[in-house]
Amino acid sequence: MLKNGTRLQSQVCDTQVIVVRASEALDDLRCGGALMAPIGDDRSPDAQIDATLADGNIMGKRYVEDAGAEVLVTKAGVGTLSIGSTPLALKEAKPLPASD
Question: Is residue 96 one of the residues assigned to a domain?
Fold first, then answer.
């Protein structure tokens, strides 16, 4: 299982993330359909982006999974972040209370 603070990179695009909240689901974390690898690992030469998972991601945004896993994008790319083939959801900011 991945630990909080683990840095990962995509095998098919420029995406890089940091694990903010780990869960067992992140063992199947993918970007553009290909498994993500620790930063510094060589890219797989035969990895291809899945056209159905190429909607991109946004630098500085957090993406979450239903079980509570959360990753922060540190470098954006064209691949969609997913657990298996299920895309992660963009985490919405919580509204601040009114200060009337």
Answer: no
The answer to whether 17 and 83 are in contact (CB under 8 A) is no
Residue 51 lies in a domain: yes
* Domains in the chain, number: 1
Please work out, in degrees rounded to the nearest 5, the angle formed at the alpha carbon of residue 76 by the alpha carbons of 72 and 78. 125
Please give the residue range of the domain that contains residue 67: 7-90
Q: Is-contact 76 15, C-beta < 8 A?
A: yes
Examine residue 75 and state whether it is found in any structural domain, yes or no: yes
Residue with tokens 């009337």: 100
Categorize the per-residue pLDDT at 94 as very low, low, confident or very high, splitting at 50, 70 and 90: confident
Residues 6+ apart with CB under 8 A from 46: none
Percentage with pLDDT > 90 across the chain: 77
For residue 56, is it within any domain? yes
Helices (H) and strands (E) in the chain, counts: 0, 10
